[in-house]
Design brief:
The chain is an all-alpha fold and 288 residues long. 32% of the residues lie in helices and 2% in strands.
Length: 288
Amino acid sequence: MAYTRKDVSTLTAAEKRRFVKAMLEVKKRGQYDEFVRTHIEYYTSDGEDGLRTAHMAPSFLPWHRRFLLELEKALRKVDASVTVPYWDWTRERSATAAPWTKDLLGGDGRRSDRQVMTGPFAYSAGQWTIKEGVTDGSFLTRDLGRSRDPIELPTKSELESALADPVYDVSPWDSTVTRGFRNRLEGWGTGRGTVAWRNHNRVHRWVGGAMLGGASVNDPVFWLHHAFVDLQWTRWQQRHRGARYLPASPPGAGDDQHERIVARHQKMPPWDVTPDDMEDVSRIYRYA
């Protein structure tokens, strides 16, 4: 039977406690840091050589869908009632509302060093030490809204601009495309500053701190954010019936993207699954 992922703002006190407890246990067992290492390893930009699976490529959505399922599997081995909630950043836009409460993810970082001081994932609580990252810091950091140069979370209309695009992705299948649902949702834009970050990307910038860069998994909000991104793929599929993951076939030998992206029926490292395998997960979970 499919389980349900809920809006984080609707969680009961008991559901919050179970989610936090399971997350802390996965961290204690050392599994959580494996997730961080995996994301760092596969955070390959389209300016680098080699295969891109996690970002700046068509497989951004199925790769993170599988990544979420792996984390959820680990959580549910601790507590079978736990699922990953989603954070609707078009609606919950305050730095003090869900999920930034003391009983869930804790709040903003302090002004001096952006260290998170509240909630169960604060370094001072003793159960969430950063061990894998791109810096030497051992504590979780945030800069909600980016204090020195404020930015806003994406709006419903900005998200709608992605959902309205009937094509999943287009050539050259990277961060430069201006058409296609995948990149409109992932959020690589042209220009500088805020306009260069849309939807998914802008949320990472808005949270700041640990959420910047390949080690963003160190902030538990990563999973709530990506659950909402995953929900958008589900909504896009429902709106554009019959629309499929693209490309269906790998780019040829003379194409700049040859062996640099994953086609519909190709395996997505590090797992033995294809984007095609990830398109329909209705038997596994659904969204409330």
